[in-house]
Amino acid sequence: MHIPDGYLGPTTCGIFYVAMLPLWVTAAKIVKKTLRAKQVPMLAIGAAFSFVIMMFNVPIPGGTTGHAVGGALVGILLGPWAGCIAITVALVVQALLFGDGGITAIGANCFNMAFVLPFAGYYIYKAISYNASIDAKRRVIAAGIAGYLALNLAAGLTGFEFGIQPFLHKTASGQALYCPYGLNVALPAMLGEHLLVFGWVEAIVTALVIKYLQKQSPEFLEEGRKN
Amino acid sequence: MKTITKLWIGIVVLIILSPLGLILPEQFKARSAWGEWGTEEMQKLVGYIPRGLEKLSSIWNAPIPDYAFKGWEEKRLLHLSFAYIVSALVGIGIITFIMIGIGKLLAKKGD
């Protein structure tokens, strides 16, 4: 889901940088109000987890690869705004140090994976686990569904960004300047592989960690916890 | 043991296991992720390299491209797995450093 340099035209790249700027500022403001010094290690673990889980490329035999992002989980555990900051840092390090995701596409990649993903994950989890006790099975199921739906939402959005490029930028002879595949190809490709495979990986990762925390450290699942 | 320590141990285990993300796609003959092809692959896929893509694709020279050391492209999976683990360590080291910096900047002191 990491859009490389050259796949999005300058307009799309610019729009998403402009869209992310106020979101990053808001995230910093909101986190500043609520973050306690004790929670900082958890913030670092969230970013580290998202980074390393993205290295686990899952193959579709004979086809493409993809991976979980852990974005829904990070959103659920840190809250969506802190999650946005954590995943942004992971994505920026991936782009600058490892060339995973383009530097011109950092805005778009952050919008998809550091904004839409943790926010969708957080709110879907909240809605389904509403009023459930900390040790309820419903929380594990809610986490799985949140991971699955949120990753697919982000993947669909990525497919959309790829797919509009041939409409936006073409040479006089009709050759694409950036991503050559239109919506009719990009959208089903991105959505299909995530609906079939990678979404389930995100669902399992999200659900398993929530289940583990229920047993080991239920305090992390409490809303507005004090530690 | 404190939960935070356990979670860090979990991260270390994931770092050690990370080469699976390299070995499994190789075993199952899976190609690049959709939309993350290099220019050569693009030439094969659509018969040409979009001009803007060609220009922009080399705009940034990452120091550890694709989690592998430069010049190690032809090395065997064992070497690449080693580079993958080192990449994970370096990446997580830097991310932790940045996050603690951001955390210090934003967190309320005292409690």
Walk me through this protein's architecture.
The complex is a heterodimer of chains A (227) and B (111). Chain A has helices spanning 10-34, 40-53, 71-78, 80-98, 106-128, 137-163, 165-168, 183-216, and strands at 58-59, 65-66. By secondary structure, chain A is mainly α. Chain A has one domain: Arp2/3 complex 21 kDa subunit ARPC3, CATH 1.10.1760. Chain A has a two-stranded antiparallel ribbon with strand order 1-2. The mean pLDDT of chain A is 95. Chain B has 5 helices and no strands. Chain B has helices spanning 3-17, 20-27, 39-46, 51-57, 77-106. At the A-B interface, α1, α2, β1, β2 and α4 of A face α1, α2, α4 and α5 of B.
Briefly say what this structure is.
Chain A is mainly alpha-helical and 227 residues long.
Number of domains of chain A: 1
Strand content of chain B: under 5%
Number of helices of chain A: 8
Highest-level CATH class of chain A? Mainly Alpha
How helix-rich are the residues of chain B, as a percent range? 55-70%
Q: How many strand units of chain B? A: 0
- DSSP strand tally of chain A: 2
Main β sheet profile of chain A: 2 strands, antiparallel
What's the CATH architecture name of chain A?
A: Orthogonal Bundle
Spatial order of the strands forming the largest sheet of chain A: 1-2
Which sequence of SSEs, written as H and E, runs from N to C of chain A?
A: HHEEHHHHHH
Strand content of chain A: under 5%
* Largest sheet entry of chain B: none
Mean pLDDT of chain A: 95
Span between N and C termini of chain B?
21 Å
Sum up the overall morphology of chain B in one term. Answer: extended
CATH topology of chain A: Arp2/3 complex 21 kDa subunit ARPC3
